[in-house]
Amino acid sequence: MKKNLIAGAWTGAADATSNSNPSDLSDVIGDYADASVQDVADAVSAAHAAFASWARTSPEYRSDILDRASAEILARKEELGRLLSREEGKTLAEGIGEVTRAGRIFRYFAGEALRITGERLDSVRDGIDVEILREPEGVIGVVTPWNFPIAIPAWKIAPALAYGNTVVFKPAELVPACAWELADILNRAGLPAGVLNLVMGRGAVVGEAIVRSPLVRAISFTGSVRTGRQIRLACMENGKKMQMEMGGKNPLIICSDADLDTAVSVAINGSYFSTGQRCTASSRIIVEAGVHDRFVERMIAQLADLRIDHALDPATDIGPVVSETQFEQDIDYIRIGQSEGANLAFGGKALERKTKGYFLEPALFTDTNNGMRINWEEIFGPVASVIRAGDYEEAVSIANDTAFGLSSGICTTSLSKMNDFKHRSAAGMVMVNTPTAGVDYHVPFGGRKSSSHGPREQGAHARDFYTSLKTVYVTS
């Protein structure tokens, strides 16, 4: 059994969760300890005790630890990528790519640890100087989802440590293996005991205990809207700083002037790669009437050529759905779409392969409208809808008519439409002729409305969440 990391020691538990491969349910990756409420309390206490000394360490000391972690992650990218694909179901290429990204995130924040800046201003009063300092928050609770088992933990933990915070980390119950490896790498990279604590297990037990602990100063959460709202209320009640990323229902506009080859490629990548299990996936494809029929025809032709199979098979384009629960949710939404009158133009069937797994044929709906549940609620699977729009203006209106606001996209050859849409889109990220699901690690990530709450993640802007400002007045 793989144990939790508490106060620098690997700590066992009475119960454990078995981690299986969604491409092959007979492939058991391992058993991972389920933390108790007391384990969480011990982890938080350890992080609280370690904070004062860790916050006072030199930036170079913290930078060196993050740099060593980065080097090991990148050196082991094939091994860790394979592990990621086994437990989450991404294709091997995507798994290796995600691990590579995690390594680069740690390398980036190893540099950011050396670039913590402040300000000095003259006071409006004679003989007084003003300094504005950035200081670490304290104990950070990090709660991560299953769809990016190492990249999302990396982009939360790396800045937390770089800026001098300590961390209590709870990964999603479905994907503990990558989280365990990441904690092990950081522990061996030289983190002092208690600076990073790993507590695995159920959100209702472990996550709730982290959020409710009075010693946890801030919560960084990525997950569902429902859980995010519950955490946000708890944070507000207890005066905690919060950073919430809670999904999207992302539009991709296909203009009548778009290059169709580009548009279809962008739509398939954004809608279906990673089995559609991305909060930035293009789940609403809004197509101008003049190109609608040709676009749909090409989409169906290319979807038919995709291979859905075992994630570790190099020929696979799309791997399995992550779990039985998620698989059933996807199937339920396909039934809901049909009951609402949408036309299932392609796919949507369970598939049998050589190994028993959660394989689902990508589903494409046509003849849909923006009021349907399949266009309003996040499905989080290989399911996308086409909405016909009369013209560009109607397409923009439909795109913005959603409770979410994470990512949006447009395929066009018109410079004026590109410039107009990047300003009018009601999303936190806008993509032009590129998939809505592709983001860089050195720039801000986040959305608006129900998608996000609190300071942005990633890049230099991460400091706004992981540090607090202090204003100092000095009489000379």
Tag the structure with descriptive keywords:
476 residues, alpha/beta, Aldehyde Dehydrogenase, Chain A, domain 1, Aldehyde Dehydrogenase, Chain A, domain 2, 2 domains, 7-stranded mixed sheet, 6-stranded mixed sheet, 39% helix, globular
Question: Your description of this structure?
Answer:
This protein has 476 residues and is an alpha/beta fold. The protein folds into 2 domains: 4-246 and 451-475, Aldehyde Dehydrogenase, Chain A, domain 1, CATH 3.40.605; 250-432, Aldehyde Dehydrogenase, Chain A, domain 2 (3-Layer(aba) Sandwich), CATH 3.40.309.10. It contains 14 helices and 24 strands. Strands 14-17-18-13-12-20-21 form a 7-stranded mixed beta sheet, sandwiched between helices. The longest helix is centred in the first third of the chain and has 21 residues, at 92-112. The termini are far apart. The mean pLDDT is 97.
In short:
This protein is 39% helix and 25% strand. The protein is of the alpha/beta class and 476 residues long.
Q: Would you give the CATH topology of the largest domain?
A: Aldehyde Dehydrogenase, Chain A, domain 1
- Going by CATH, the homologous superfamily of the largest domain would be Aldehyde Dehydrogenase, Chain A, domain 1
What is the global morphology?
globular
Question: By helix and strand content, what is the structural category?
Answer: alpha/beta
Distance between the termini: 60 Å
Number of helices: 14
From the alpha carbons, calculate the radius of gyration and give it in angstroms: 23 Å
How much helical structure, as a percent, in the residues?
Answer: 25-40%
Largest sheet: 7 strands, mixed
Regarding quaternary structure, how should these chains be classified? single chain
